């Protein structure tokens, strides 16, 4: 995420470490590099000018702390101003009404339909009862796609008309406003507290699209109108957001594909340019890969500081507290088995792609570039296959794994005997670490779940 920008800013901060103090000369030199880095990241010129002005004012002003190094001073200022540019504080949904109606708008291909299902999944996990409405009756198979995604998310989807997606191919025009009015009636009768409406998009902004969305907004009276933008399109996404805000009126932004955005231009320009907060970020393809947008945390990640808070939150969601207590008990009794090892790997997988998880640790990105560390999620899949090819006895008591058993396990898992041997060695090393943790003064795993 934002690899290019992170590398350039990291280089600027590294250069500053060689200075004894901040002066107007070295600040100007550093800011020239920061300005170039932001422009190369496709950040809006007006945003860059405002950002550089604020950083310069604070770096030369009274806000600089004299007790820390120049690099630390400058890093803090840049981080604070990055967070401010991204929106300052996190901004959640303002759900009003019964049901609360949320419209998602945007161009075709921005990830709108998938974002509807992801948002429904997120709201359901937070205890709400969402109802998804397929109001995109233009794109072929859009209704069917949303129905399938809603099924996977475990939420109900309103189907406007059987075969509507096929009708769109034949050029049949449906009354979207009527469909949405009926969907609202159904939502009220069934007791849903939130309605998420997937609207039609186009390959480009046109008058017809905007008029349709404005009419739909007047019908639904939504409490939120979220513009869904592909972060990888950079300034094009910002320009399109301005058009939607002018003609329809948006209340917030969902940035998709943020995990694949190496530049960061859209994210850093969107709030300043539109005045609307980024409320959610899509960080993967799976339905649980939609996160509330936290400007300060993202600013830290851009500067290589990691994002430990988000990592801990993900761990709380992925790891069962009772199982963690049981694991702690096993570690203290030196009873950690291969089955436990498998369960911990599966917990790690639930946190998301391994490289994305590790990038939340401070300094990981720099270490990866400096030492050439390669992260491969397929390695976890290989380990899973090997352990799943073992008998219960072998998982609970790896000491029985003789040569004949290892050959059988390798064949059953589609791997080599060398892979099985390496796994057993890895397990032994993990177990040694666990023994150290269990000693007096070691880490109490139960402390992870204490407020």
Give the number of domains.
3
Report the uncertain regions: 163-173, 442-451
- What structural category arises from helix and sheet content? alpha/beta
Helix fraction by DSSP (H/I, runs of at least 4): 55-70%
Please state the overall shape, judged from the principal axes of the Cα atoms.
Answer: flat
The CATH superfamily of the largest domain turns out to be: P-loop containing nucleotide triphosphate hydrolases
Beta-strand portion reads: 5-15%
At CATH level 3, the topology of the largest domain is Rossmann fold
The biggest beta sheet reads: 8 strands, mixed
DSSP summary: helix tally: 21
What are the salient characteristics of this protein?
single chain, alpha/beta, Four Helix Bundle (Hemerythrin (Met), subunit A), Rossmann fold, 434 Repressor (Amino-terminal Domain), 3 domains, 8-stranded mixed β-sheet, flat
Describe this structure in words.
There is one protein chain. With 451 residues, this protein is an alpha/beta fold. The protein folds into 3 domains: 3-86, Up-down Bundle (Four Helix Bundle (Hemerythrin (Met), subunit A)); 100-303, 3-Layer(aba) Sandwich (Rossmann fold), CATH 3.40.50; 310-449, 434 Repressor (Amino-terminal Domain) (Orthogonal Bundle), CATH 1.10.260. It contains 21 helices and 8 strands. Strands 3-2-4-1-5-6-7-8 form an 8-stranded mixed sheet, with helices on both faces. Helix 11 (265-274) links the parallel strand 6 and strand 7 (278-282). It is flat, with a radius of gyration of 26 Å. Mean pLDDT is 81; it is low at 163-173 and 442-451.
């Amino acid at each position: 995420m934002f690899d290019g920008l992170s590398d350039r800013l990291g280089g600027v901060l590294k250069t500053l470490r060689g200075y004894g103090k901040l002066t107007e000369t070295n600040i100007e030199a550093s800011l020239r590099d920061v300005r170039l880095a932001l422009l190369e990241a496709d950040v809006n010129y007006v945003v860059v000018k405002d950002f550089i002005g604020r950083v310069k004012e604070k770096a030369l002003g009274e806000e600089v702390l004299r007790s820390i190094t120049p690099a630390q001073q400058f890093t803090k200022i840049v981080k604070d101003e990055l967070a401010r540019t991204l929106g300052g504080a996190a901004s959640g949904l303002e759900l009003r009404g019964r049901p609360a109606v949320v419209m998602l708008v945007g161009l075709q291909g921005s990830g709108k339909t998938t974002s509807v299902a992801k948002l429904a999944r997120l709201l359901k996990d937070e205890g709400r009862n969402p109802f998804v409405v397929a109001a995109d009756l233009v794109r072929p198979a859009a209704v069917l796609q949303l129905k399938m995604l809603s099924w996977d998310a475990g939420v109900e989807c309103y189907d406007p008309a059987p075969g509507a997606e096929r009708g769109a191919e034949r050029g049949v025009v449906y009354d979207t406003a009527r469909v949405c009015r009926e969907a609202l009636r159904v939502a009220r009768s069934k007791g849903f507290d939130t309605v998420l409406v997937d609207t039609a998009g186009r390959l480009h902004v046109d008058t017809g699209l905007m008029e349709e969305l404005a009419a739909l907004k007047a019908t639904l009276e939504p409490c939120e109108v979220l513009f869904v933008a592909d972060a990888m399109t950079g300034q094009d996404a910002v320009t399109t957001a301005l058009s939607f805000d002018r003609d329809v009126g948006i209340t917030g932004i969902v940035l998709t594909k943020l995990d694949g955005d190496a530049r960061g231009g859209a994210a850093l320009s969107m709030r300043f340019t539109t005045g609307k907060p980024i409320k959610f970020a899509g960080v993967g393809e799976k339905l649980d890969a939609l996160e509330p947008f936290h400007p300060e945390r993202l600013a830290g990640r851009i500067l290589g500081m990691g994002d430990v808070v988000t990592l801990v939150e993900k761990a709380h969601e992925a790891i069962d507290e009772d199982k963690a207590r049981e694991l702690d008990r096993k570690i203290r009794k030196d009873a950690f088995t291969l089955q436990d090892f498998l369960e911990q790997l599966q917990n790690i997988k639930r946190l998301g792609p391994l490289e994305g998880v590790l990038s939340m640790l401070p300094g990981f990105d720099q270490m990866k570039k400096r030492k050439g560390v390669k992260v491969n999620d397929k390695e976890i899949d290989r380990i899973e296959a090997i352990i799943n090819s073992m008998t219960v006895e072998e998982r609970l008591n790896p000491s029985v794994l003789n040569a004949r058993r290892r050959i059988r396990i390798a064949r059953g898992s589609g791997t080599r005997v060398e892979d099985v041997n390496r796994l057993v060695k890895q397990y032994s090393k993990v177990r040694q670490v666990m023994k150290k943790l269990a000693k007096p003064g070691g880490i109490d795993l139960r402390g992870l779940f204490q407020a």
